[in-house]
Fold:
Amino acid sequence: MSPSSISAYLQFQDLVQKLLESQGFRIQRIDMQAQDTGFDLLARRADAVWAVEVKYYRTRREQASLLEAAARGLLTSSLKAGVRKAMLVVSCSLSLPLRAAIQERYGLTIHDRADLTEWAAKAPPLLDELEALLEIESPAPIDGQSRPKAPTAEEKDLPNEAPPEDHLGMNLCQRLRALKSGRSTWAAYERLCAEILRYLFPRDLLGWRKQQRTDDDLNRFDYVCRIKPTTDFWRFLIDHLNSRYVLFEFKNYAGQIKQGQILTTEKYLLERGLRRVAIIVTRKGAHRSAVSMVQGAMRENGKLMLVLDDHNLCKMLYMRQRGEDPSDLLFDLTDEFLLALPR
Structure:
């Protein structure tokens, strides 16, 4: 996570703890450095002990595959810790059918944005904090009448076995780190990057168009994809940058990319073609001369170029595997870039 993501997540976790305490739970925070249990909190009420996992998403809309991954991971972690009840608390809004299906499949309880809003309504300072953190402009009614209650699993223990763990994100990261940079592996790097991006954004990018390039042997291919506004990041690109398409460039250089590679990419960004955003995937990131060119392209022409290195890709792969939204990291990088953009 970027610093801004970590800050938002910790704020949300603190707020969830306060809200659970308002519901009669006694909370124990898990020190991840001392003990990585795979969940965030232990909650006790009456004689029951709950493993609680907190997921903060920038996007309000539910993403079923991420919620499935989060629930599967929580069930596995809870059983390993010997805890027989589990609760997944998320910042997004869930449809009742999806919520009921996941609870039934994994034997845990899910609380979403509407539940948190209802709990917080009884403590106005907490409601103010929740609305500010989740950027709620007009909160849904909280009288309990307009939103039917979803079934909960509070009276059930977890099943005795968890489904097989998903290690695809970790495996892709390991393959990336093991792949050598340079001319001899450019084709393998291009194929691996395409596989990684399809894993990270299966619903967000459509119409993958592969284009032949001839500028050098390290950078022969790029992809142009149509954006689907599934999360806040992709919607931001469409609504505020007027970009219906995103260009991906794969640069398998051993060192940092420099301004020449940025200039090459920028010329493929077309305002009238609704293609004003490029994501440049490289091994070691961008040299300061390249960063200056990226800033100039945004400041002077409104073209956004994000540079992702191996570390960024691996962070997103682990986020996806844990049921977190990898596009949140892209949004954080964009936020930081625009906030720091010099005159």
